[in-house]
Write a structure and sequence with these properties.
mainly beta, disordered N terminus
Length: 284
């Protein structure tokens, strides 16, 4: 749940050594102040496009209640009871406000928007989540009651069980309320998204010197299009009309979100058995 401190210069090359001191979870800066709800979320997707109503009905926003204050992450709705997100978002939370059907997350009168509180007993963090190495960065949340699907709220599909595709070169969509630039200090109201291609893990790993595992999946961030702080746990979905979620935003380089280092996600296909065990959900 901690942010890590960078000690290297932006001039470092791809072939240089980057250890875990240079990697940070893609969650929001933790907030110890407690202004009115809906006014504490930092940032948005960097260099993305604003989402239209109903465009990403599987997108979830998570207001996390922590001992130190509040923070914001994203998630993916995968059924009428379950949400997929990152372990580093939900590890140690006391409770979560789940935003469903939201585009303008600060407008609580927005048509289609629902906010449901989830207590910590309904939060399931992967048992082998490693906070020091950001390994097994996955968790699921169970809504206290089933929700009704509509034009604003629909689940994403999980990949098929036994799916072996690496997705290299395929176009995907990442979405969330994360920072839109490294210098951004304000908040955003509107959900944003970027279309980004999948990068081969062996190429991605050159940037992170072995920190990228088989259980990760990476996106190219050329053009400075990337996930950023505030997007953690949010969806990476195939842009083929199927709304298949293949990643949950995990980490990136601490130098910033616009330096064109790959964005790293938890690879959903690596955890289909775990998801089925916890939720009963599978695509068989």
């Amino acid at each position: 749940m901690k942010f890590l401190i960078a000690i290297a210069l932006l001039a470092c090359t791809v072939s240089g050594h980057y250890d875990w001191e240079h990697i940070q979870p893609r969650n929001v800066d933790y907030l110890v102040r407690t202004p009115p709800r809906g006014k504490v979320i930092e940032g948005r997707i960097t260099n993305g496009e604003p989402a239209a109503e109903k465009q990403f009905p599987y997108q979830v926003g998570l207001m996390l209640y922590l001992n130190a204050g509040r923070a914001w992450c994203g998630g993916t709705l995968i059924s009428n009871r379950w949400i997929l997100t990152a372990a580093h978002c939900t590890d140690g939370v006391n409770g979560v406000d789940v935003y469903l059907g939201a585009t303008n997350r600060t407008d609580m009168t927005e048509v289609g928007q629902q906010i449901i509180y989830v207590s910590k007993k309904y939060v399931h963090v992967h048992e082998k989540w490693d906070t020091s190495q950001l390994v097994n960065d996955i968790s699921v949340l169970k809504l206290p009651v089933p929700i009704e699907f509509n034009d604003y709220i629909q689940p994403a599909k999980l990949p098929k069980m036994g799916e072996s595709s690496l997705y290299i070169g395929e176009k995907t969509i990442a979405s969330g309320w994360g920072k839109d630039s490294d210098s951004a200090k304000g908040v955003t109201d509107i959900l944003r998204w970027v279309e980004v291609p999948i990068m081969a893990n062996n190429v991605c790993s050159r940037y992170y010197q072995g920190s990228v595992k088989d259980t990760n999946i990476c996106i190219s961030t050329k053009g400075k299009k990337s996930t950023c702080n505030g997007d953690s746990g949010g969806p990476l979905v195939l842009n083929d009309g199927s709304n298949t979620v293949i990643g949950a935003t995990s980490f990136g380089i601490i130098f910033g979100c616009e330096v064109e280092f790959p964005g790293v996600f938890t690879r959903v296909t690596s955890y289909l058995d775990w998801i089925k065990e916890k939720t009963g959900i599978s695509n068989e």
